[in-house]
């Protein structure tokens, strides 16, 4: 095989690859011989058709199949030999595969640069250490109670933690606009049949809209800053005027930093009534024995799994940050960055659509996602090089352990484990994650590591 290479730009490569006729002919003959075992022709028994007749009838098709196989196959051989970090699929042109002349083609493609890593022993990394305390279990059980709370009308001023039902009108400048939620609505809104505040709430300054019967949980952080606090102490039928400002990072750019006046009328004040931590509550959670000790034990087990996952993620993040902080910024092929940025923007747009938010009004574009794209590509290249340097291979016992951990949260763990092992493509993401964790562990063995003890809550921030 003969290769002529040409560097057209910093990351662009162009190669002319020539494969001799003897390799092409050998593979064509192999395909025809395989075909001869099953082909049927009038006057001949199966498997007894002369190869000359088979070649005459099927030769051109067999050669075409061989050419289609050899082009990507030989390119992969060259790319591996040259140690190219491919940034895209090659574009194959100028293909010459006439009988007797072998195969020749041109491949044009982009390559990534080779990351220049800092000496790993110079990295200073703070490894997080945490454990589940009884207060964490208490807090989670309170969360479970809160998720199952009911609301009842309270004949008193609204306090933190209450829910108020309001009618409102907002004015931005001289033009009315509705109150709006900068974040997804709390769980209790999403589960209710009342109007979704994300739909009830974001208006351009030029629109005049009114909202009614909007549930607002005081202290939940579902509304813009100052809205909930401004309703503390209000009673049913009270009216309040709130002079606020939309945040700079508001999801409607046209409203960011705009002053807004809300006229709010309180329809009712409601107080939460969470269930007692008793046998009925335990049974409602699926514990037939009604024993709260069983609830606490299961809650701790779930928190331990969450803790292990959070520690892995935080450690991974700190190792990556330490590596990038000690490297010069990498130049990357522009088209690869554009593709990654477009993918990121597309995923973000999908997520916002699921929340009922129009992504066109938020300014999500590939250009806005470019810094994230550059980081993701850089991290991928760095981890790839570390995998090569470390020589680690995926630990299948750890993959199994991880799959069992995921399956434990399902009602039928054994079926979930079997589902993963029915198809290697289902396990592939898990195997990649475990392999990256092994690489991170290898880096920690080389680096200067100190432990940082923190609470479970601090770890999750």
Short key terms for the protein model shown above:
single chain; 461 residues; alpha+beta; Alpha-Beta Plaits; Chitinase A, domain 3; Trigger factor, domain 2; 3 domains; six-stranded antiparallel beta sheet; four-stranded antiparallel beta sheet; 13 helices; 44% helix; elongated
Question: Can you describe what's shown?
Answer:
The structure is a single chain. With 461 residues, the protein is α+β, with helices and mostly antiparallel strands. The protein folds into 3 domains: 2-110, Alpha-Beta Plaits; 149-273, Chitinase A, domain 3 (Roll), CATH 3.10.50; 283-460, Orthogonal Bundle (Trigger factor, domain 2). The chain contains 13 helices and 12 strands. It has helices at 21-36, 51-82, 134-147, 187-191, 197-200, 279-284, 292-325, 334-354, 370-390, 396-407, 413-422, 424-446, 456-460; strands spanning 2-7, 12-19, 91-96, 103-110, 124-129, 150-153, 163-172, 175-177, 210-217, 239-245, 259-273, 448-453. The strands form 3 sheets. Strands 6, 7, 8, 9, 10 and 11 form a 6-stranded antiparallel β-sheet that branches. Strand 3 and strand 4 (103-110) form a beta hairpin. Helix 10 (396-407) packs across helix 12 (424-446). The chain starts with a strand and ends with a helix. The relative contact order is 0.12.
């Amino acid at each position: 095989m003969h290769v002529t290479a040409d560097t057209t730009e910093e990351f662009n490569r162009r190669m002319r690859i020539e494969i001799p006729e003897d390799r092409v002919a050998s593979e064509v003959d192999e395909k025809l011989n395989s075909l001869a075992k099953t082909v049927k022709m009038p006057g001949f028994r199966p498997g007894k058709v002369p190869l000359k007749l088979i070649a005459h009838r099927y030769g051109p098709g067999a050669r075409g199949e061989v050419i289609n196989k050899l082009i990507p196959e030989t390119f992969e051989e060259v790319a591996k030999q040259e140690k190219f970090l491919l940034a895209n699929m090659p574009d194959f042109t100028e293909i010459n595969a006439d009988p007797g002349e072998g195969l020749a083609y041109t491949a044009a493609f982009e390559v990534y640069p080779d990351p220049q890593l800092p000496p790993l022993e110079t990295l200073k990394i703070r490894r997080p250490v945490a454990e589940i305390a009884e207060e964490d279990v208490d807090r989670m059980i309170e969360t479970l109670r809160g998720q199952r709370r009911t609301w009842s009308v309270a004949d008193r001023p609204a306090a933190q933690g209450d829910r108020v039902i309001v009618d409102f009108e907002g004015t931005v400048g001289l033009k009315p606009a509705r109150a709006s939620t900068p974040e997804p609505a709390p769980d209790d809104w999403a589960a209710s049949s009342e109007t979704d505040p994300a739909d009830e709430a974001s208006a351009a300054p030029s629109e005049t809209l009114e909202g009614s019967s909007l549930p607002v949980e005081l202290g939940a952080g579902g509304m813009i800053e100052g809205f909930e606090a401004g309703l503390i102490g209000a009673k049913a039928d009270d009216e309040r005027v709130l002079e606020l400002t939309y945040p700079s990072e508001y999801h409607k750019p046209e409203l960011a930093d705009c002053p807004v006046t809300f006229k709010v009328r309180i329809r009712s004040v409601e107080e939460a009534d969470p269930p007692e931590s008793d046998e009925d509550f335990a049974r409602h959670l699926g514990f037939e024995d009604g024993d709260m000790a069983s609830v606490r034990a299961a809650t701790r087990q779930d928190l331990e799994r969450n803790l292990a996952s959070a520690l892995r993620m935080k450690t991974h993040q700190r190792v990556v940050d330490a590596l990038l902080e000690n490297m010069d910024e990498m130049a990357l092929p522009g088209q690869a960055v554009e593709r990654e940025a477009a993918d990121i923007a597309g995923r973000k747009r999908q997520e916002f659509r699921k929340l009922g938010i129009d992504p066109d009004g938020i300014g999500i574009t590939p250009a806005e996602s470019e810094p994230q794209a550059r980081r993701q590509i850089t991290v991928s290249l760095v981890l790839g090089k570390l995998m090569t340097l470390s020589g680690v291979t995926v630990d299948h016992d750890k993959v199994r352990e991880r799959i069992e951990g995921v399956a434990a949260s399902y009602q039928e763990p054994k079926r979930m484990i079997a589902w993963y092992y029915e198809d290697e493509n289902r396990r592939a993401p898990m195997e990649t994650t475990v392999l990256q964790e092994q690489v991170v562990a290898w880096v920690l063995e080389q680096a200067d590591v100190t432990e940082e003890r923190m609470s479970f809550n601090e770890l999750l921030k």
